[in-house]
Sequence to fold (176 residues):
Amino acid sequence: MRWVFLLAGLLLGFVGGAGTIIYLQTRTAGGAESGEMAIHFDQKMYYDSDAFVVVSGTLTGPDMAYPNNTYNVSCYQELKQCWSSNVEAIGERQIGRLGPPSEFDIRSWTKNEIVAGYDSPFGCYKTTITISRTSQVLLWVEEPVNQTKPFCKDAKKVIRKMTIEDSPSWKRLHQR
Fold:
């Protein structure tokens, strides 16, 4: 009689475990997100006036350490500066720290385009931000510099080009 209960218990445990695994796999395949992709950032936003331009959204491109992020780039004509701040999803239900804004000097401001940049004498790359006011596209380019400096010996020697787009979760939401 004990063998019957043992076999029944093993069978019930096996069926329950298999059912749980199947449930979890179909739930994940059906669109439930995990990790940092479970955090939902808003869609891309663009605002343009004579005095300032603001672009917000997810910075996308190759080799992004945290592809689920949100950036805000605000450019002020009178100040001749653009400021950028960002936060990144760094884990499941975890967002990184919001640091101080990065400052970029405006090199050109026309009715069609804004170009701003930051050239650090101590960094291993320079950053140029170009906002096309006609197409409402922001291009973020990082180029290697100071490659002969000892502190840049391990720096990547590639040009990275990124744009601000809708967040990954916003894109998934509107694909359905």
